[in-house]
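Lab notebook, bench 4. The sequencing result for the construct came back, and we need a structural model before the next group meeting so we can plan mutations. Quick request posted to the team channel:

Model the 3D structure of this chain.
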Amino acid sequence: RLHDAAFDRELISFDDNLKLLLSPRLKAELPLKAIADNFGAYAGEPLHLPDDATLPDLGFLAEHRAKLIREA
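Done. Here's the predicted structure in token form:
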């Protein structure tokens, strides 16, 4: 739920290899333990999907990343 909300608010996104990206806004708050533990610890790590999962649309992720970067 936490990560889903962060994605919806463009605080996190994923690259084309489905590795977690943190927004500059979120990175600015990383000294806060909760943010470091829940997001910072996973930055650059790939998303783990079940074998039968439908992969996210890479075009959608590219648009989402652009919004994350634009708000920097």
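The radius of gyration is 12 Å.
Will bring this to the meeting.
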